[in-house]
């Protein structure tokens, strides 16, 4: 799994070379009704890539990080997990 994650970021770095404009970020915390007190904060990047062969633009996104927090997702627990 670790190697797959490293490969994912290698490909992502190559893809980010063709970004047109800025990269935007979104964050969210996912919770599950079936698994109480488990929360998963995520960070996602969004950008537009130029496709040179067709001279067109394509919206793209990538999951940058996710973590599992057990218990309450307070500001302190989020800061501890992210930092």
Automatic annotation (TrEMBL):
Its recorded name reads Uncharacterized protein
Please indicate which superkingdom the organism of origin belongs to.
Eukaryota
Q: Which organism is it from?
A: Pisolithus microcarpus 441
